[in-house]
Amino acid sequence: MSPLPDAEALCAQLAQQLKADLHPETAMIGLYTGGVWLAERLHAALGLTTPLGTMDVAFYRDDYHQQGLHHAPKRSKIAFDVTGRHLLLVDDVLYTGRTVRAAMNELFDYGRPASIRLVVLADRGGRELPICAQFCGAQVSVPEGQRLSLKRGEHARLALELTHA
After folding, report:
1. pLDDT in tens, 29-79
2. Is 5 within 8 Å of 160 (Cβ atoms)?
3. Closest CA to 158 of 37, 1, 25, 64
4. How far is Cα 160 from Cα 139, in angstroms, rounded to an integer?
5. Per-residue CA distances from 12 to 73, 121, 129, 141 (Å)
6. HSE on the CB side for 71, CA within 13 Å?
7. CATH number among 3.40.190.150, 3.40.50.1820, 3.40.50.2300, 3.40.50.2020, domain 7-164
8. Integer Cα distance of 131 and 115 in angstroms
9. DSSP result, 44-99
10. What is the pTM of this model?
11. Cβ atoms of residues 25 and 85 within 8 Å
12. Which of 14, 95, 111, 116 has the fewest C-beta atoms lying within 10 Å of its C-beta?
């Protein structure tokens, strides 16, 4: 297997891609945990003035009754009106599409955005729902039985990591 791409370089690449596609009504929402870390970087790099929103979609997942909570849920915090906004929904790794579906369900509880565009650091394939990212740092091949995740290390440095599922 080839080495994993550098998360810091991918973040910079995403910021460049996004700059050309911003609207005055653009706002950003990061999904806990890795998506929030990435969104914090992108929000600052893009100089967005609307506060960064954060979401934990645990209770909106369609597998919640099977999986339960694997972490202490955080409160979603969206300190702006989503109605009419062009939203950038940010997550670290796109896999089945179920997290993104849950995030969209929660977003519509807040209002009706003009658009929602998905930004991910890495797409590992394996989709179970018809969801794709409009902005993607890298396509990453992940071996069977492995999980791809974003880790935040010393000095808040971001790194992609493979672990056993």
Report:
1. 999 989 999 999 999 999 999 999 999 988 775 554 455 555 556 689 999
2. yes
3. 37
4. 12
5. 29, 10, 28, 21
6. 8
7. 3.40.50.2020
8. 14
9. HHHT--SPPEEE--GGG-TTHHHH--SSPPPPPB--S--TT-EEEEEEEEESSSHH
10. 0.92
11. yes
12. 111
Domain ranges of the chain: 7-164
- How far apart CA 76 and CA 9 sit, in angstroms, is 28
pLDDT in tens, 81-109: 999 999 999 999 999 999 999 999 999 99
Say how far apart CA 147 and CA 23 lie, in whole Å. 35
Identify the CA nearest to 69 among candidates 59, 79, 78: 59
